[in-house]
Amino acid sequence: MGLTSIFFVFAEENKDIENTPINLIISDSIEMKDQFEIEKISVSGEDLIFEVSYSGGCQIHEFNVLWNGEYVETSPSQIDLYLSHNSNSDLCESKIFTTFALKLVNFNEDDLIINFFDYDGVKHTLIYNAPTNFVSVNQSRSSSSCTSDAKICPDGSVVERMGANCEFQSCPVQENNSCNKDLKVCADGTIVSRVSPLCEFSECPSGDECNFIGLRTNGDYCSINKTILFQKQANSFCENNFECQSNVCISDKCISSNLLNNIFNWFRDLFD
After folding, report:
1. How is the chain split into domains, by residue range?
2. Is the peptide bond before 76 cis (omega within 30 degrees of 0)?
3. Which of 31, 17, 146, 35 is nearest to 90 (CA)?
């Protein structure tokens, strides 16, 4: 996929630089929207730090890191990340620089190869080694008489059984009981977030549910009950235009598209 630049970068101490946190979106659909350039990229502590430049200045620009949720089974494991940029149709041409920070501990891997793709398909490869105080699911357990199972806390951290009673250590206390700001994009485009108390993703809508009332596609529509229904034929009862195949509801009845065409033709002939 295009050119490849390789950076062998090991975890460093975080510098006193104000970086903008960025969301991680898990989705099978990878859509590269508006153009940008990666100026710098590196691993610092538990963060992937990258500086991007883009044209704008008149609209709010949205950036998200996209991941398909899969690990490439190598040693260490690999992940492919993509950066999505939505300029919101910004026509201004000022050159803007923004530095983002992505939390790498969310991937629960103590060693990781990161393949980061930019807008032009150039792959930047970085190697992440977790700090020595990080405990991953795959890390070997300390020798003790307790069983070697582990517990994943709501914030993604891992605790082991300790002490004479071999009880799990306490999970870190989350401020304001808040979860990580990760997002998940469902198959229908609905975005769900992590919710308390376990900070798991909310369930995606099932196949017969929808999120946008009045949305029409392929002869179906999203009803006021947020269920997907077939559009109705002529003379069927209706309350809204989007319920009808003709997209016209008058006096609680769907109007035939043929009738509409006859009316349009009559007006056209009237003024010809």
Report:
1. 4-201, 216-271
2. yes
3. 35
Q: Encode 228-243: b = buried (16+ Cβ within 10 Å), e = exposed.
A: beebbebeeebeebbb
- Write out the two tokens for 104: 């790498």
The radius of gyration of the chain's CA atoms, rounded to the nearest angstrom, is: 26
Average pLDDT, the chain: 75
In tens, the pLDDT along 230-257 reads 888 888 899 888 888 888 888 888 888 7
Q: Rounded CA gap, 249 and 229, in Å?
A: 16
Q: Which tokens belong to 196?
A: 């308390």
Q: Is the pLDDT of residue 62 over 60?
A: yes
User: How is residue 226 written in tokens?
Assistant: 């947020």
Judged on CB neighbours under 10 Å (0-12, 13-18, 19+), 192 is middle
What CATH number belongs to 4-201? 2.60.40.2370
The token duo for 130 is 């977790």
